[in-house]
Design goal:
It is a single chain. By secondary structure, the protein is of the alpha+beta class. Helix content is 22%, strand content 42%. The chain is built from three helices and eight strands, in the order αααββββββββ. It has helices at 2-18, 22-27, 33-46, and strands at 57-64, 73-82, 85-94, 106-112, 116-123, 126-133, 145-154, 157-164. The strands form two sheets. Strands 1-2-3-4 form a four-stranded antiparallel beta sheet. A hairpin with a 2-residue loop joins strand 2 (73-82) and strand 3. The longest helix has 17 residues, at 2-18.
C-alpha cells in the first residue's frame, strides 16, 4: 500500500513539475531563437479558445537531422490537458526546403504518444518512444506495463513504423 501511495504522490509531483511555467525555458534550451519562435507559433495553433485553461506545453524540444539532409528538424514532445486527462504528442517541424524563396517551417507530422512518462531515444532516421501503460489491475496512477513506438521521417513525413508492448 505504501508503494502505491508513493507512486501516486510521485506521479502528481511530476505532473505539477511539467506544468510549471519555468519548465518551458528548460525544455526549449537546445533551440535557437528562430526555432523557439517556430515552436511557440505551433503551440499557439494547438490552443483551444473554448478552454483557455487547457493550454499546451513543451515537454522536450530538440533540433535533430532526421532525414539526413544536413538541416535539423525540430522534434517536439508536447502535452495538452483535456478535462481530467492529458494527451501527449510527438510532432516534427521541418525547415523550409533548401533554396526556398521564402522561409517557412511546416508540420511534417504528429503522432499521439501512447502511455505516460515517455522516454525518447534517437537513432536518426528513427525515433523510439518508450512509455508506461496500464495493465489489467493497475491503479490509474501507477501503470506497470511498457509500450514502444518507433517512428521515422520518410519522404518528408512522420510515419509510425512499429508499435510493441512486451
Amino acid at each position: 500500500m505504501q508503494s502505491l501511495l508513493t507512486c501516486c504522490v510521485l506521479t502528481l509531483l511530476l505532473s505539477a513539475a511539467v506544468q510549471q511555467p519555468g519548465r518551458a525555458d528548460e525544455a526549449l534550451a537546445g533551440l535557437d531563437a528562430a526555432q523557439r519562435r517556430v515552436v511557440q507559433q505551433f503551440l499557439a495553433k494547438q490552443r483551444d479558445p473554448e478552454e483557455p485553461r487547457a493550454q499546451p506545453w513543451v515537454e522536450q524540444a530538440r533540433p535533430v537531422d532526421l532525414d539526413g539532409d544536413g538541416r535539423a528538424e525540430i522534434l517536439l514532445l508536447w502535452s495538452k490537458p483535456y478535462g481530467n486527462s492529458l494527451s501527449t504528442s510527438l510532432s516534427v517541424l521541418a525547415p523550409p526546403p533548401a533554396g526556398a524563396g521564402r522561409p517557412g517551417w511546416r508540420l511534417a507530422g504528429s503522432q499521439r504518444v501512447r502511455g505516460i512518462n515517455p522516454v525518447l531515444t534517437l537513432a536518426p532516421p528513427l525515433v523510439r518512444i518508450d512509455s508506461a501503460v496500464e495493465k489489467p489491475g493497475d491503479p490509474r496512477c501507477c501503470p506497470s506495463g511498457k509500450i514502444t513506438q518507433q517512428l521515422r521521417l520518410s519522404a518528408g513525413w512522420l510515419q509510425e513504423m512499429a508499435l510493441s508492448s512486451p
